[in-house]
Amino acid sequence: MNAFEQLLAFSRDTQALGQIAGRLGWDQETMMPAGAGAQRGEEMAAIEGVLHARRSDPKIAEWLASAEAPDAAGAAILREIRYGYDRTRKVPADLARRIAQVTSESQAKWAQARADEDVAAFLPVLEEVVALKREEGQALAEGGDVYDAMVADYERGVTGSDLAKIFDAMRPGLVDLRARVLEKPAPKALEGRFDEGKQLALSEQLAVAFGYNLNNGRIDKAVHPFCSGSGQDVRVTTRTSATDPFNCFYSTVHEVGHAAYEQNVDQAYLLTPLGGGVSMGVHESQSRIYENQLGRSRAFTGWLFAQMQTSFGDFGIENADEFYAAVNAVHRGYIRTESDELQYNLHVMLRFGLERALMTGDLSVGDLEAAWNDRFAADFGYAVDKPSNGVLQDVHWSVGLFGYFPTYSLGNIYAGCLYEALTQAVPNLEADLAEGNTRRATEWLRENLQQHGGLRSPKDTIVHAIGGEPTHEPLKGYLEKKFSEIYDL
């Protein structure tokens, strides 16, 4: 084999081991016995040590020095391997292992603290996670901005300052639109209790309707819905609520957006650096356009209304228009993943500001809960009632995912741009959705974005799909139009 072929074979094995590590994480969230947390931490640390050693192996530098790309995809593979190699070598192996072990253990402690409403029980391990991630960020930044180094793990090419400018431009309009909406009467809500088995059955029907291939995937329950894996093994989780089936349905559709992206990447890229979603922002654009612009559209909710009547009988909603308003109701609430489409980005902006301050050292872990509660009251107009609705609600910080949160709003921005392009490219889209048929919409996304995986940079992936520069203006216009119609503003 020539140098490129040797490098690619070595990288495939590393990618395969990374998938195994991901499967351990999936098991921890879904099926692992409650008492296995400490051992799982050691297992995760061990495999992270192997991965770090492979990703920083000096042989990679030798192969890179002489490898010649056979085509454009090969050039992209070399680009990604070089980037990953340079980045991995900046982080000491012992630090990488320690982060893997502590974050695995921290996840279990977070889950228990959340169940017990006990912030104090979680703060010591969070303090350790933050210290380790700061150390990692300093190693990666090499004297630059630590938070920028964290963001680069999830969205290369974007800085904390870039994000702050975008969010500062978006926030006033979101706050104003929310204020106008909340002055109006609330839509009629669902009534009664909804059988869990029927929820999960309809959830699976929705997953298939949006193109999820269950031959290469599965749906399980978890406290915090997520998607795991790539290529031929992509798994999603959802959750249920006896009084709120939308929690189950739209958690599923959201995660299927992630899963479809992974399943639809060109199989020629399988187990290469191009074989998954290019960034979390682009990934989130898929989950959000599936969930919101398609799944919460007037047309699709008309179809879903009929399915729910079949499954649950009378649940207090008289017609499809009332159901559409109920699906998109703007309401007071605490939980980001349960937030309505209008207020969701405000939740993200709150977390972005806090985690950026944590990474720069401007906010201590001990002051985090108070800072969260103060910011929430300022942004939403009411106080956090309990920790599980506040600083303990998300899993991200417990597992060290600093820099991840802003990609949720980037994904919304990208989704707004993609939807604008999609509606121009697919005539009569609403007629399809009214029949529960997402095929032409999801095929357009597969053709123009998903199949390309990591071939291009995150921004160039969006530019290629929409034919222009992404901005927040399409999202702004979409939200204004949608909620003005629903609430008769």
From TrEMBL:
<keyword id="KW-0378">Hydrolase</keyword>
<dbReference type="GO" id="GO:0004181">
    <property type="term" value="F:metallocarboxypeptidase activity"/>
</dbReference>
<dbReference type="GO" id="GO:0046872">
    <property type="term" value="F:metal ion binding"/>
</dbReference>
<keyword id="KW-0862">Zinc</keyword>
<feature type="binding site">
    <location>
        <position position="254"/>
    </location>
    <ligand>
        <name>Zn(2+)</name>
    </ligand>
</feature>
<dbReference type="Pfam" id="PF02074">
    <property type="entry name" value="Peptidase_M32"/>
</dbReference>
<dbReference type="InterPro" id="IPR001333">
    <property type="entry name" value="Peptidase_M32_Taq"/>
</dbReference>
<keyword id="KW-0121">Carboxypeptidase</keyword>
<feature type="binding site">
    <location>
        <position position="258"/>
    </location>
    <ligand>
        <name>Zn(2+)</name>
    </ligand>
</feature>
<keyword id="KW-0482">Metalloprotease</keyword>
<comment type="similarity">
    <text>Belongs to the peptidase M32 family.</text>
</comment>
<keyword id="KW-0645">Protease</keyword>
<feature type="active site" description="Proton donor/acceptor">
    <location>
        <position position="255"/>
    </location>
</feature>
<protein>
    <recommendedName>
        <fullName>Metal-dependent carboxypeptidase</fullName>
        <ecNumber>3.4.17.19</ecNumber>
    </recommendedName>
</protein>
<feature type="binding site">
    <location>
        <position position="284"/>
    </location>
    <ligand>
        <name>Zn(2+)</name>
    </ligand>
</feature>
<keyword id="KW-0479">Metal-binding</keyword>
<comment type="function">
    <text>Broad specificity carboxypetidase that releases amino acids sequentially from the C-terminus, including neutral, aromatic, polar and basic residues.</text>
</comment>
<dbReference type="GO" id="GO:0006508">
    <property type="term" value="P:proteolysis"/>
</dbReference>
